[in-house]
């Protein structure tokens, strides 16, 4: 009897996992097809590594999880830049640009928090506007280094990952 109960529980858990995997893969496929910047493999890998995404049963659930994921990444990148500033590990003229990047990340985090609240109230248009605003942060940070003709940005890789992390909930919100 215990074996039978265990088998049923295992099959239910496996079914939930399979459903979440299918939801993630299908959603990422549709999102990548409509947004050429979004990389399908990055989308799938990012979401399958996130416990909340793995338990999502709807596209809206994936929007919630991926928005939280993007906000967490913004704060990680902000802390990374603050460490560079604190350690003074930057070339001439870069301090002002790095400080601007920190401000951009703060604004982007606020925008994602507003987007999250908008999704909770099913106001997808407003969520889209604020996610799009957050999406500007990594590009604007990188532009500061290019415009100042400074050394290569020390946060290019982090900004590229952040861009992808923000593209995911933005693309998903456009599908709701």
What does this structure look like?
It is a single chain. With 176 residues, the protein is mainly α. 83% of the residues lie in helices and 0% in strands. It has seven helices and no strands. The protein has helices at residues 2-34, 40-48, 51-54, 59-87, 94-120, 124-147, 156-175. Helix 1 (2-34) runs antiparallel to helix 2 (40-48), helix 1 (2-34) crosses helix 7 and helix 6 (124-147) runs antiparallel to helix 7.
Present the secondary structure layout.
Elements: H1 2-34, H2 40-48, H3 51-54, H4 59-87, H5 94-120, H6 124-147, H7 156-175
Helix pairs in contact: 1-2, 1-7, 4-5, 4-7, 5-6, 6-7
Please tag this protein with its features:
single chain, 176 residues, mainly alpha, 7 helices, disordered N terminus, Pectinesterase_inhib_dom, disulfide bond, Invertase inhibitor, Invertase/methylesterase_inhib
- Which class do the helix and strand fractions yield? mainly alpha
Measured distance between first and last alpha carbons: 44 Å
How would you spell out the order of helices and strands?
Answer: HHHHHHH
DSSP summary, beta strand count: 0
Low-confidence stretches: 3-18
Shape: elongated
Q: Can you give the helix content as a percent range?
A: over 70%
Radius of gyration: 19 Å
Mean pLDDT: 90
Largest sheet: none
| Strand proportion | under 5%
How many DSSP helices?
A: 7
Keywords: Disulfide bond, Signal
Pfam family, one: PMEI
Family: Belongs to the PMEI family.
Domain Pectinesterase inhibitor: 19-172
């Amino acid at each position: 009897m215990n074996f039978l109960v265990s088998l049923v529980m295992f099959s239910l858990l496996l079914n939930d996992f399979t459903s979440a995997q299918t939801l993630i893969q299908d959603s990422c496929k549709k999102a990548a097809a409509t947004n050429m910047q979004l990389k399908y493999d990055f989308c799938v890998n990012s979401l399958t590594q996130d416990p909340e995404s793995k338990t999502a049963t709807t596209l809206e659930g994936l929007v919630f999880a991926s928005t939280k994921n993007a906000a967490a990444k913004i704060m990680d990148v902000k802390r990374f830049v603050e460490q560079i500033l604190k350690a003074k590990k930057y070339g001439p003229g870069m301090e002002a640009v790095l400080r601007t990047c920190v401000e951009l990340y703060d604004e982007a985090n606020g925008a994602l928090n507003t987007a999250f609240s908008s999704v909770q109230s099913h106001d997808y248009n407003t969520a889209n506007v604020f996610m799009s605003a957050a999406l500007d942060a990594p590009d604007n940070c990188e532009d500061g280094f290019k415009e100042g003709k400074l050394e290569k940005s020390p946060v290019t890789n982090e900004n590229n990952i952040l861009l992808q992390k923000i593209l995911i909930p933005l693309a998903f919100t456009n599908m709701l």
